[in-house]
Amino acid sequence: MDASPPPFSFSRSASDTNPGPASDSEMDAPTDTADTDATDADTGAIDADAADAGTDPFLDGAGFFPGLPSGYGDLTGRSAVVVGGAMAGLAAAHALSRAGYGVTLYERQSYADKRVNCGEAITDASLLPLAKTPDNGFPCATTAFEVQVRDGNETESALFPAAWGYVADRNVVERRWAAHLAAEGVAVREGSSVSRGEFGELTDAYDLVVDATGQPSLASRFENSTEEYVGAMTAINADVTGDFSGLHPRALIVFEEYLGYAWCFPKTESRANVGIGWAQEALPDDFTAAFAAACERNGWPTPDPGTANVAVIPRGPSLDPRRTYDRQGVVRVGDAAGIANRFTGKGISQAIHSSYLMAALAAHDRLPEYPRRLHGTMRPEYFLSYVVRGTLEDNRLDLLRGVLRAVDGIDVESVDREPRKALARLARRPVLCARLARSPAIRRRAVRALRDDWEYAALEPGSGTEPETGTEVETGPETDRETASGPTRSLGRRLSALRPGK
Ligand SMILES: Cc1cc2nc3c(=O)[nH]c(=O)nc-3n(C[C@H](O)[C@H](O)[C@H](O)COP(=O)(O)OP(=O)(O)OC[C@H]3O[C@@H](n4cnc5c(N)ncnc54)[C@H](O)[C@@H]3O)c2cc1C
Fold it and tell me: Which pLDDT value is given to residue 18?
């Protein structure tokens, strides 16, 4: 095998964009019904329309991660188990299976009635190997995300185009993707929760264990270290019906005078996912009342409280990046790796990226590099979102308005994947930069972010999980994690200790 995997690069062709919204009649068709299943119930054969998304997003690298050039991808004989079958887990199963692993996927819920807590905006749907049809859970090809900042009577709007943006019926997307994987030979075990005890046995049975169970991860629960995830947002959301013809096919995010934001993501002209999220330091006393008030202020239908979900969004890096891979064969992806965006809480494309990166490195026999590569890939996004979040924490909506004005027009996914574009736009506004630099909180945040000094560093000394602030994450295959990080860092070793006969 070639010793050096291809570098990361961003390369999208102009034709790599979504095809625009489907017709209204198509989009209003109910999509989450049993008869839209991608597999034929008798034969297990995949419906070609459901699966055909053109080129394979993992194999071609999708522009953001190494992909799998020819010459790789024959790991036949190796086995992998993926625990958690949402976005990160499905992507991991897809990519590892493409790389030649025999893959088993465990998902606690049943895909037929799976509940997802999410705004359902997928900002890089090109990463999913499914045709972007309403039947596959893509009712709306979102053209742009409008972000409004409301400060007293002043409203500032910025528009972020979405080349591959969709507001999805995510339960349908997951069901279709799982069916697609099953048809390709992945052993999909839905409705199967892996217990902490069972997790302890997986490293014996499989060459690779992928933890895609969200936050806090099963690996952390196994280790009783769930407190290591720091920096969450709490959100409440619901699917509502109403008249969204004035907004659709755009999506709307509203920042007001609180530490958080509200959203309205139309799926059709008459259906939308609406929600509101708060940073954990600023939670309201009554979530339902605060949600209803936000809907009323914004002219959105007030959801029936019985249909609303309350869930936690991790803000990355909410986990020590070095903890994302255990040398003994346990690797964390998606929310389990604590990588959702710190400012927006957006984590779907991040989850898929982490899984594709993990699988590409596994295929190159370079998995020990995963923590460093994942952190390196995410770090510019962490930096931008951490610093910009300071404008909200300091209640400086004037500065947030200035930042939005500067970055207006950049593709919504590019803001995360190529934050240099946003930073370059800011650099062209010296007055704004000077105002940002005058804010002690923003200066402090910039310094902390540059030093990788995130919240997870505040873990209690002696817990065995605390990182050394400012030091580099795991450096590569030759690093001895046991020596570098202390014995409690090795989940695999602790799993081994539980094996029968040990
Ligand atoms: C209210 C809300 C709104 C959001 N809106 C957006 C948005 O619009 N766009 C966006 O990009 N991101 C959004 N996010 C973030 C996004 O939902 C997450 O970042 C993303 O879901 C992470 O995917 P994941 O697969 O890593 O984890 P999860 O989605 O948490 O999935 C974990 C899976 O593991 C399964 N599981 C857990 N434990 C076990 C076990 N023991 N055995 C077997 N299976 C198990 C669960 O059932 C679940 O299916 C939102 C989050 C919230 C809470």
Answer: 57
Q: What one-letter code names the amino acid at 497? A: A
pLDDT at residue number 17: 56
Q: Position of tokens 């049993």?
A: 34
Q: Which protein residue has the closest C-alpha to ligand 1 atom 50?
A: 118
Mind listing the pLDDT tens digit for each residue in 359-397?
A: 988 988 889 999 999 999 999 999 999 999 889 888 899
> What architecture is domain 232-314?
2-Layer Sandwich (3.30)
502/496 Cα distance (integer angstroms) = 8
337 within ligand 1 shell (Cβ under 6 A):
no
Atom of ligand 1 nearest to the CA of 199: 41
Cα of 484 vs centre of ligand 1, distance in Å, is 31
Percent of the chain past pLDDT 70, that is, above it, reads 77
Q: Which residue has the tokens 């030979």?
A: 185
C-alpha to C-alpha distance for 445 and 395, rounded to whole angstroms? 15
User: Would you say the CB of residue 274 lies under 6 angstroms from ligand 1?
Assistant: no
- State residue 1's pLDDT score: 33
How many angstroms does the Cα of residue 172 sit away from the middle of ligand 1? 14
Considering only the C-alpha atoms of the chain, give the largest distance between any 2 of them, rounded to a whole number of Å. Answer: 70
As a dihedral over the C-alpha atoms of residue 40, residue 46, residue 50, residue 54, rounded to 10 degrees, the angle is -170
User: Which architecture, in CATH terms, is 40-140+163-228+316-376+459-473+480-502?
Assistant: 3-Layer(bba) Sandwich (3.50)
